[in-house]
């Protein structure tokens, strides 16, 4: 029996207060992320010392504490930390977007194919997925990164190679259940060819959990990229990258705290913002 | 209801048929040795409750499920042997209407796009032609063309079901397989959908395979009916006949259990929890007429009068359910007491 | 009106600005079977829930008296007392209302204990109640998912009986059941109604069912009462057009009724 949504009062407590709270979380996360993205995009224009984001060095101004000229102080070779943090945002942004795009696309496509096709196709895909999942992501990324030359590209490749299986597994299970729904049967009865069914009917209806996962994963990617760079396998001098900056500044923590603290905070806040957005999305879509 | 039965013409050669079909998922068989035919220009009903296998049979008849044994035929051709061209023809002539309109339509597509997809697969049309045809189809099922831009969740249950019918009609089929098409709808909406289906059948010479647990709906649209229990057909024949004078105890139980406006309260036959028996007749554990033979020998479908019945005691049941017996006479006396109601009922 | 188990006057349920249901008058006397009939969105379920004070987030005005208790003014303790013991609720899908991790026997024992009935008295009541609904005592050892829909529904009725319910509020109690199973549950209800004087307030969209078992019927549409009165009269001689439309829309079964038709 159909009833217009919201017509009947329910036995449960009306989630009016909870509604605003959860949406506020998603909105706050989105806003914060938006600020970070804007900062990254406009870094060359808003950074007070844009050349410090690159290869400029000022040995005479090394390790100056935060002041009016240098809000975040300077690092060991005199570069403005604020500018480097802003440029570091660009690097991180590129890494996150690239990784999520690559692993998301590969993972989702494999997942819907596995979910819809079933049978041996699904078995093969899921076993390959299982093999990749059996390795701890960081270890696999490390192994790959060691083999390749340290660079931002390496970081992207290494992390993508270990992240796609999660999306496949997630998508395959949702796609399996979408494949049993009436409109998929109806499309089969119309004689719609299988690839069209997968991309027009199964995929759009299987995306929701993946989108949630993607936004949650943004934070994870940033942390993993920072870890790889920290270990010297990713970005290297003179590129501004948060993980690298943390590695370079950690020894100075007790004497010149600003060199490591600000990049560290940047990692924390960005990861947190991604999480807020992801959690907010998850709650919103689950309603 | 009498209109369909009254204008009973001999059904044309079957468009769709099941020939001794056994179906199952995994290890267990869900449908056993079932045969039936559906022709253009006639309604065939499949009556059954949950667990009867009716939906599984419907899926097989739509080519969505391959039989373990037996054959599903389109015309004279076995579906299992169809080539690509054959499948396209089959798909263009046999279409489903499912129970729940909100499930039968892709929630992410507009209603017009869903209908348009049907047109794209089977006809060559440019965008303008397609848009016009979609508007025509919507009008055919009594909907405003403007609804084409809406998503399924923006429509009412009755409207969604009409869209599902429009999509099925888009390929110009000869037979529709309808699985509980009105069960999820309010009774007034259901009546209008049944009116629509009746009109379409008359106008287009469509054949229906109508699956429903609702005897009244089947009586309205189908001249022939098959009753299914535990995956087997237990009785088939002309709908009016079958429901007026059941020859199988299960059909009798069903008919007596259905409440009627102004009528007696539903009569229980008891022991409905008993699972279908695995030896002999599957219905015997619930059957008030069961004798020893029912346990030893599974009854086969046999001709009894104008009917096919799978029951060793069919003749007894037939006598008992016929008008003129003491049971019937008592029932009718009770009904006569509420005479006013019956006088009001006009022929539809 | 004083021996009416349930008495409703000028009931109105609102959410924000929208009026969901308006019922000027509704009585259920001892031993009576009253049915509220209507399509989706008619407000029938809302009315039922309002009578038990189970509506949250909605503004309910009017007077609702259940077994002498003013539902709108009563505190939670008092409502708990009458709910389950005097007035019992039976819903459409019993298995979702029953705790899946608890055996049915445990469930009954706990429910009885909550209303102060323990030990031998509880056991005796349980046995009698099960016998009344034609369920074998073994059913108490099962879990909700191990019994059929019809058995679960009869168990819900048995629970109500064991707690001493005088009136049963049922919301589409048989809609999810096969028609043969429905007939069994309805037969149980009718026997209890006729032999034990159990009053029933039934909400249903199934007119034929209602017409064959109810004493009085209330027809609702879009939140308002369209027509009400003795069931036989309303179905034989409907006054309002909507009632006539509803009755006409029910698909008819051929059968001996067709022969009686003049």
From TrEMBL, chain A:
What name goes with this protein?
Binding-protein-dependent transport systems inner membrane component
Membrane spanning stretches? 25-47, 93-119, 131-164, 257-278
Alphabetized InterPro entries for the sequence: BP-dependent_transpt_permease (IPR050366), MetI-like (IPR000515), MetI-like_sf (IPR035906), OppC_N (IPR025966)
PANTHER family membership: D,D-DIPEPTIDE TRANSPORT SYSTEM PERMEASE PROTEIN DDPC-RELATED, OLIGOPEPTIDE TRANSPORT SYSTEM PERMEASE PROTEIN APPC
Q: Which family does it belong to?
A: Belongs to the binding-protein-dependent transport system permease family.
Q: Which residues form the ABC transmembrane type-1 domain?
A: 89-278
Keyword tRNA processing listed? The answer is no
Top-level taxonomic group: Bacteria
Q: Which UniProt keywords apply?
A: Cell membrane, Membrane, Transmembrane, Transmembrane helix, Transport
Where, subcellularly, is it found?
Cell membrane
Instruction: List the source organism.
Output: Thermobispora bispora (strain ATCC 19993 / DSM 43833 / CBS 139.67 / JCM 10125 / KCTC 9307 / NBRC 14880 / R51)
Q: How does it sit in the membrane?
A: Multi-pass membrane protein
Any one cellular-component term (Gene Ontology) = plasma membrane
Biological process annotations from GO: transmembrane transport
From TrEMBL, chain B:
- Gene3D superfamilies tied to this protein: P-loop containing nucleotide triphosphate hydrolases
Q: Which domain of life is it from?
A: Bacteria
Which CDD domains does this chain map to?
Answer: ABC_NikE_OppD_transporters (cd03257)
For this UniProt entry, the molecular function terms from Gene Ontology, in alphabetical order, are: ATP binding; ATP hydrolysis activity
The cross-references to InterPro entries, in alphabetical order and at most eight, read: AAA+_ATPase, ABC_transp_ATP-bind, ABC_transporter-like_ATP-bd, ABC_transporter-like_CS, Oligopep_ABC_C, P-loop_NTPase
Name all ABC transporter domain ranges: 16-255
Give the family from UniProt: Belongs to the ABC transporter superfamily.
* Name this polypeptide is given: Oligopeptide/dipeptide ABC transporter, ATPase subunit
TrEMBL record, chain C:
Membrane topology recorded in Swiss-Prot or TrEMBL: Peripheral membrane protein
Q: Enumerate the spans annotated as ABC transporter domain.
A: 6-247
* Gene Ontology annotations for the cellular component aspect, listed alphabetically: plasma membrane
Q: Which family does it belong to?
A: Belongs to the ABC transporter superfamily.
| Species of provenance | Thermobispora bispora (strain ATCC 19993 / DSM 43833 / CBS 139.67 / JCM 10125 / KCTC 9307 / NBRC 14880 / R51)
The main location is membrane
The name this protein goes by in its record: ABC transporter related protein
Task: Report the locations given in the UniProt record.
Answer: Cell membrane
CDD domains assigned to the protein according to its UniProt record, in alphabetical order? ABC_NikE_OppD_transporters
Keywords (alphabetical) are: ATP-binding, Cell membrane, Membrane, Nucleotide-binding, Transport
In terms of InterPro entries, this protein maps to:
AAA+_ATPase, ABC_Ni/Peptide_Import, ABC_transporter-like_ATP-bd, ABC_transporter-like_CS, P-loop_NTPase
- Which SUPFAM superfamilies does the protein's record reference? P-loop containing nucleoside triphosphate hydrolases
User: In the UniProt record, does the keyword ATP-binding occur?
Assistant: yes
Q: Does the keyword Ion transport apply?
A: no
**Which Pfam families is this protein grouped with?**
ABC_tran (PF00005)
| Gene Ontology terms, MF aspect | ATP binding; ATP hydrolysis activity
């Amino acid at each position: 029996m159909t009833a217009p949504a919201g017509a009947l009062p329910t036995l449960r407590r009306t989630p009016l207060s909870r509604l605003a709270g959860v949406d506020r979380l998603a909105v706050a996360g989105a806003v914060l992320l938006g600020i970070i993205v804007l900062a990254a995009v406009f870094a060359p224009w808003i950074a007070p010392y844009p050349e410090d984001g690159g290869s400029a060095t000022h040995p005479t101004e090394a390790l100056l504490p935060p002041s009016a000229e240098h809000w975040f102080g300077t690092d060991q070779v005199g570069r403005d930390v604020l500018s480097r943090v802003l440029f570091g945002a660009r690097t991180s942004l590129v890494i996150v977007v690239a990784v999520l795009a690559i692993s998301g696309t590969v993972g989702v496509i494999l997942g819907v194919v596995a979910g819809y096709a079933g049978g041996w196709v699904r078995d093969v895909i899921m076993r390959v997925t299982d093999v990749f999942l059996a390795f701890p992501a960081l270890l696999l990324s490390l192994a790959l990164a060691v083999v390749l030359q340290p660079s931002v590209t390496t970081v992207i490749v290494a992390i993508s190679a270990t992240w796609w299986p999660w999306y496949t597994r997630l998508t395959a299970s949702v796609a399996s259940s979408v494949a049993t729904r009436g409109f998929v049967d109806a499309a089969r009865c119309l004689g719609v060819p299988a690839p069209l069914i997968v991309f027009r009917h199964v995929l759009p209806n299987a995306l929701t959990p993946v989108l949630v996962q993607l936004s949650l994963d943004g934070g994870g990617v940033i942390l993993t990229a920072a870890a790889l760079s920290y270990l010297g396998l990713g970005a290297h001098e003179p590129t501004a990258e948060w993980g690298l900056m943390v590695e370079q500044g950690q020894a100075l923590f007790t004497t010149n705290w600003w060199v490591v603290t600000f990049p560290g905070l940047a990692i924390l806040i960005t990861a947190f913002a991604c999480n807020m957005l992801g959690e907010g999305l998850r709650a919103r879509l689950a309603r | 209801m009498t209109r369909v039965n009254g204008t009973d013409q001999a059904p044309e050669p079957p468009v769709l048929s099941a020939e001794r079909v056994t179906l199952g998922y995994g290890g267990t068989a869900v449908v056993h040795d079932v045969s039936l035919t559906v022709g253009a220009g006639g309604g065939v009903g499949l009556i059954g409750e949950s667990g009867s296998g009716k939906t599984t049979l419907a899926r097989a008849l739509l080519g969505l499920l391959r039989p373990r044994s037996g054959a599903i035929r389109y015309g004279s051709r076995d579906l299992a042997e169809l080539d690509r061209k054959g499948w396209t023809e089959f798909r263009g002539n046999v279409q489903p209407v499912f129970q729940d309109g909100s499930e039968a339509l892709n929630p992410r597509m507009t209603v017009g796009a869903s209908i348009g997809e049907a047109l794209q697969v089977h006809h060559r049309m440019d965008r303008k032609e397609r848009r016009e045809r979609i508007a025509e189809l919507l009008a055919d099922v009594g909907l405003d063309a403007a609804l084409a831009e809406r998503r399924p969740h923006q429509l009412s249950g009755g409207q969604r079901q009409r869209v599902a019918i429009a999509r099925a009609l888009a390929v110009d089929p000869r037979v529709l397989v309808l699985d509980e098409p009105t069960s999820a709808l309010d009774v007034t909406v259901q009546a209008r959908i049944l009116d629509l289906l009746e009109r379409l059948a008359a106008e287009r010479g469509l054949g229906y395979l109508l699956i429903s647990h609702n005897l009244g709906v089947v009586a309205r649209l189908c001249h022939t009916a098959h009753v299914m229990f535990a995956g087997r057909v237990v009785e088939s024949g002309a709908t009016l006949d079958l429901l007026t004078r059941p020859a199988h105890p299960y059909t009798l139980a069903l008919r007596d259990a259905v409440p009627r406006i102004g009528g007696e309260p539903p009569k229980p036959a008891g022991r409905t929890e008993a699972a279908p028996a695995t030896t002999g007749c599957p219905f015997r554990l619930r059957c008030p007429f069961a004798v020893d033979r029912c346990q030893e020998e599974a009854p086969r479908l046999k001709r009894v009068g104008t009917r096919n019945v799978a029951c060793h005691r069919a003749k007894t049941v037939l006598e008992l359910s016929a008008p003129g017996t003491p049971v019937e006479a008592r029932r009718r006396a009770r009904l006569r007491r509420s005479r006013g109601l019956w006088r009001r009922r006009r022929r539809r | 009106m004083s021996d009416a188990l349930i008495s409703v006057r000028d009931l109105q349920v609102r959410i924000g600005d929208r009026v969901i249901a308006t019922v000027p008058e509704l009585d259920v006397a001892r031993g009576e079977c009253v049915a509220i009939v209507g399509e989706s969105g008619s407000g029938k379920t809302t009315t039922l829930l309002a009578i038990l004070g189970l509506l949250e987030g909605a503004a309910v005005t009017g007077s609702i008296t259940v077994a002498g208790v003013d539902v709108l003014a009563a505190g939670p303790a008092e409502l708990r007392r009458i709910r389950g013991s005097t007035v019992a609720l039976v819903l459409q899908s019993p298995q979702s209302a029953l705790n899946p991790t608890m055996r049915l026997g445990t469930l009954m024992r706990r429910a009885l204990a909550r209303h102060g009935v323990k030990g031998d008295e509880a056991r005796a009541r349980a046995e009698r109640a099960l016998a009344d609904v034609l369920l074998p005592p073994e059913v108490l050892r099962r879990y909700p998912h191990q019994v059929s829909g019809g058995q679960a529904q009869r168990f819900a009725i048995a629970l109500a009986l064991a707690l001493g319910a005088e009136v049963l509020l049922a919301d589409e109690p048989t809609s999810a059941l096969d028609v043969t199973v429905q007939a069994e549950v309805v037969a149980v209800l009718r026997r209890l109604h006729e032999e034990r004087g159990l009053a029933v307030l039934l909400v249903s969209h199934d007119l034929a069912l209602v017409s064959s078992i109810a004493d009085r019927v209330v027809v609702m549409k879009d939140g308002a009462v369209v027509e009400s009165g003795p069931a036989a009269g309303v179905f034989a001689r409907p006054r309002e057009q909507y009632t006539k439309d509803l009755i006409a829309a029910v698909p008819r079964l051929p059968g001996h009724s067709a022969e009686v038709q003049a």
